[in-house]
Structure formats: structure tokens, C-alpha cells
Amino acid sequence: MSTPDALRECPDCGLFQAVPALAPATVARCPRCDAVLRRARRDPFGAPMALAVTGLVLFAVAVSEPFLDLTLGGFGQATLLSSGPVQLRQSGLWEVALVVFATTMAAPLARLGAIAWVLAGLRMRDPLPGLHVAFRWVERLKPWSMIEVFLLGVFVAYTRLAALATVHVGAAMYALGGLMLVMAAADVALDPEAVWEALDARGLGAGAGQAGPMAEIGCDCCGLVSRGQLDCPRCGATLRRRKPDSLNRTWALLAAAVVLYVPANLLPVMTVISLGRGEPDTILSGVEKLAQSGLWPLATLVFFASITVPLLKMVGLATMLIATHRGSAARLRERTLLYRIVDSVGRWSMIDVFVVSILTAIVRLGLLASVTPGPGVIAFCSVVILTMLAAMSFDPRLMWDAAERGEKV
């Protein structure tokens, strides 16, 4: 079935426009900045629900079975998905442990559960209330669900471990691989706008909100354009013409990330001890060891994700902030594309944090071999989180607003 006509505000440039009815498997894009306004899916309810349930089953296997087994000198050590956060907390790095737990376990589980819960609720004759609240978390948790980044970290850790001892891949590794594919397929199959429309049709939205300004405002959460409301009548989110204090918040988060970027690269992220000998490793020295082992493609990937991407994110955010303050109208489409790239690639810098988590969890063989996390991993993890938050706090529509006014802000 075709989608209904709808008035939408472009999330990237702020242009209000009528999105016409779309046939299945078609896309509507903003004519000004080329942002995707909607992707109509062929089966927006059945396929995502089946994939979400499959993902929950795979997740149960992934958390209950070992994903790597290490054997050295007749001694063995198996590790679970939860072992990394547990060992990091026992090493005194509870902040990093919390981030690893949230991104590899809590966020993926909550997101899959929310998708399955909402889509199953739409099939019930008398669904439970609060489905709109649960679905609001589906998009909010997406950038923090990092199964695919964790798997790449496992691959990097495997190459480091293979030079140290005998490593066996457990059942959880295959479950994690399947989970990654299932979650990617669920994202492709899901049409959030179709779900919100179905919630509206069933009367399962938030209902009328409090009276507010009469200007048209597009909801940042569900995309509904409302007038005269303080809260979105569909999803209940607070309606805001632009993200509050966006420029100042982004500058503050960016400044903190710049300050921490130096110790993140200079301080050791971990110390590997083998047969009583070892030395601290920084991020760069870890890249060098991968290169010395002949793993040039992997060394290049880790260097790009862990060193280049955070730096480029900070430079890109600073460029957009300065251009917005100056009211520049130059290359607005290119700067908007830069924002999309900065917003999407930052999560991949978590590779090194996951590598430290995995190695700390599995290499615990006393005098034979051990891995101890270092202070650099706290600084590096903070840089990744701060740059992600900075990208989220920046409102790209302000670039277009400032250019239209032609004045400095």
C-alpha cells in the first residue's frame, strides 16, 4: 500500500515540504539538502518483528555461551560477553565498564525488545498502553547499539591473541555475527513513519498536548508537524523549533574532547605481560604491532578508526560551528553532508575500547600472561563519547538559518 501524504520538516535543513504518497520501496528526499525524508518499505511490520524476535534469540545465545577460548601452557580461559565489563570494573575502570556494557548488551537488547514489543502490540486487540514511549527509544538507542563495532574489535583482539596462545572461537561468536546481520536487516526493513501512523490509527499515541506557540514545528522524534502544541500529540516528545543552546553545548563538548585527545593518544591503554615480560601499549603502538605482524589492512583500519576519525570529527564539527557563527552560505549542501558523515562514523572509534575490554577479560593466566587496562583507555573512551554527544547536540538546521539571515550569530 502507498503511504499517505504528509507535511514534513527536513531534519537537516529545516525546509517544510509536502511528502507525497510513496509506493513501497521508494524514497523521498529533500530537494534542498538531499536528506532522506522517508523510505517506504514493502513489509514495514511483519519482517521487522520477525527479525527482532530472531535477534532476541541470538542475543540469548550470545550472552550465555563463550565467544573466545584461550589456551596457553596447559591453562585455559573462556570469556563471555559480560566478562569484559566485569573485569574492567574489577580493575577500577567502572566508567569504561559501564560504556562497554551499555553499548554491547543493554542498548542492543533494549532496542530489539522495543521493536518486538511495539510491533507485537500493534497486532493485539487490546494492546498495553505506552507503546509510543517504547518506540521513541528505538531511534534513540540506535547509535549506542554497537554489535558490529564490537565484532570488529573481537577480530583485532583475535589477531593479538593468536600470536600469544591458542585461540578457539565459541558458539557466541557465531551468534554475534548472526545478531549483527539480523539487526542490520531489521533496520533496513523497519519504516518508523509507518509504525507511528499505525499507532495513530489505533489511538495509541500520546494524545493532545499542552497549548504552545502557533508556529509549525516538526517533531525531532517522530517527524509529525504540529501547530499550537508544546508536546508532540503523536509521541509525547517536547516540541522544539531548534535544539536548545545547540552551538554552546557543541562547543563545550568539542573543547572537552580536544583536551582529552592528547592523553588518549599518549597514555597507555593497556599493558600486556607474557611470561613475566611486557610493556605498556598506546593506541599508536598497537597499530605498529599489527603492521609489524604483516596485518597492514587491519592496522590501517584501526589507525583510521581510532586516530583519524576522532580528529576528523573534531575538525569537521569546528568547521561547521565557525561557519554557522559567521553566517556563511558557502557550500551548505556539502557542510550538511559533512554533518551526516560526522554523526554516523564516530561510533567506530570504539574499536580500541572493545579490544582492551576483550583482552582484559580473556588474558588472565597469572604469571603466564595477563592484560591490565591503562589510564589511556579512560581518556580515549571519553573522547569517543564526547564527540558523539557533540555531533548529536549540533543542529544542522542552524547553518541554513544563519545563511538565510546572512548575519553572524
What class would the helix/strand composition place it in?
Answer: alpha+beta
What is the level-2 CATH architecture name of the largest domain? Up-down Bundle
Shape: globular
User: DSSP helix count?
Assistant: 14
Mean pLDDT: 87
Low-confidence stretches: none
Query: Main beta sheet: strand number and arrangement?
Result: 3 strands, antiparallel
Distance between the termini: 46 Å
CATH topology of the largest domain: Butyryl-CoA Dehydrogenase, subunit A, domain 3
Strand percentage lies at 5-15%
Order of helices and strands: EEEEHEEHHHHEHHEEHEEHHHHEHH
Would you state the CATH class of the largest domain? Mainly Alpha
Rounded radius of gyration (Å): 23 Å
Structure description:
The chain has 409 residues and is α+β, with helices and mostly antiparallel strands. It folds into three domains: 1-40, no CATH class; 43-205; 243-409, Butyryl-CoA Dehydrogenase, subunit A, domain 3. The chain has 14 helices and twelve strands. The chain has helices at residues 46-64, 83-90, 94-123, 131-140, 147-162, 171-189, 192-201, 246-266, 283-292, 296-326, 332-345, 351-362, 376-393, 397-405; strands at residues 6-9, 16-19, 27-29, 36-39, 68-72, 75-79, 166-169, 211-218, 225-229, 270-274, 277-281, 369-373. Helix 5 (147-162) crosses helix 12 (351-362) and helix 8 (246-266) packs antiparallel against helix 10.
